[in-house]
């Protein structure tokens, strides 16, 4: 049997036989598919934007982390003096007396405060 | 453009790529749906539903095997549709079917043969209908049919031969297409 020569004629039920009707069918499928296709385009755009932002964001985070690590490496987290004699308060530029007040829970009396401010000048 | 490229583009929401897939595989999908459901209207409904379902899940298939995957969706949707029909009245025809551009004179000319064909197809087994429609209407090769339906090429040939014989007995000379004239 010759597969191609002995074909049954199905043109009467061929859904693409009537071009206009087939176009209408395809148009209906495309209309129904519209929201899903739009969602996919939106997701694709959002992913693209995220990918665009991701690299500079990552670079900025890396720089921040390096600076933070370098700063914290020089100080003791508890505020105690490290080998180099520097605490967090000193690292932030406070005078030794102010740093002492910060570490202790007691505030300075007015006279001490005045003296310290005079010294700082 | 190969299926794989169209599938990749459709995944990104490319409407033109998805439309190309619909145009390329509508007739194959319709063949399977018609083989399962028996009527053109139901087959059209299921095809539309299957293509939308396919788009929603288009991340799933190997892009190069889109056709076989699509036909599996059509079979599943047809199965569900038939089960649904068993417990409810037939649902209203889709707008497409009702709004399709009709040509009464041409429809009248074809209606007798269409009715005869549908009745003759109804005498075949489901797999015979799928094979003969995919081969003779869609023009697929036995290798493609076997791949899509999960049967061997030899079995596809066997089903085709049986289906044609039964259709010819039922339809007589009207069944043989004169390809030599085209």
Automatic annotation (TrEMBL), chain A:
Transmembrane segments: 53-75
Chain segments carrying region Disordered: 101-121
Record key words, sorted: Membrane, Transmembrane, Transmembrane helix
Protein name as catalogued: Uncharacterized protein
From TrEMBL, chain B:
InterPro entries, alphabetized: RNA_pol_sigma-70-like, RNA_pol_sigma-70_dom, RNA_pol_sigma70_r2, RNA_pol_sigma70_r4_t2, RNA_pol_sigma_r2, RNA_pol_sigma_r3/r4-like, WH-like_DNA-bd_sf
GO biological process: DNA-templated transcription initiation
Tagged with keyword DNA-binding: yes
Domain RNA polymerase sigma factor 70 region 4 type: 115-167
RNA polymerase sigma-70 region domain mapped to chain residues: 21-85
GO MF assignments: DNA binding; sigma factor activity
Keywords: DNA-binding, Sigma factor, Transcription, Transcription regulation
Pfam families in UniProt: Sigma70_r2 (PF04542), Sigma70_r4_2 (PF08281)
Entry similarity comment: Belongs to the sigma-70 factor family. ECF subfamily.
Protein name in UniProt: Sigma-70 family RNA polymerase sigma factor
């Amino acid at each position: 049997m010759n597969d191609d020569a002995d074909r049954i004629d199905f043109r009467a039920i061929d859904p693409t036989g009537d071009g206009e009707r087939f176009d209408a069918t395809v148009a209906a499928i495309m209309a129904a598919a519209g929201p899903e296709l739009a969602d996919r385009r939106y997701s694709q755009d959002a992913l693209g934007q995220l990918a665009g932002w991701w690299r500079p964001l990552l670079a900025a985070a890396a720089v921040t982390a390096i600076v933070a690590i370098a700063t914290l490496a020089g100080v003791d987290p508890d505020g105690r003096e490290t080998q180099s004699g520097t605490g967090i308060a000193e690292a932030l530029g406070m005078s030794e007396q102010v740093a002492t007040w910060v570490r202790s829970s007691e505030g300075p009396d007015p006279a001490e405060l005045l003296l310290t401010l005079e010294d700082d000048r | 453009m190969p299926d794989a490229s169209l599938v990749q583009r459709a995944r990104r929401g490319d409407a033109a790529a998805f439309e190309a897939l619909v145009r390329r595989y509508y007739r194959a999908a319709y063949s399977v749906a018609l083989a399962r459901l028996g009527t053109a209207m139901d087959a059209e409904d299921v095809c539309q539903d299957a293509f939308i379902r396919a788009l929603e899940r288009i991340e799933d298939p190997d892009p190069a095997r889109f056709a076989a995957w699509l036909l599996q969706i059509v079979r599943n949707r047809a199965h569900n549709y038939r089960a649904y029909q068993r417990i409810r009245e037939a649902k209203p025809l889709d707008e497409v079917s009702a709004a399709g551009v009709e040509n009464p004179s041409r429809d009248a000319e074809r209606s007798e043969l269409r009715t005869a064909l549908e009745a003759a197809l109804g005498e075949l087994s489901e797999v015979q209908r799928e094979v003969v429609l995919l081969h003779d209407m869609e023009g697929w090769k036995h290798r493609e049919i076997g791949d899509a339906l999960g049967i061997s090429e030899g079995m596809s040939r066997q089903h085709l031969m049986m289906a044609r014989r039964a259709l010819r007995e039922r339809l007589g000379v009207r069944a043989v297409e004169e390809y030599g004239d085209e």
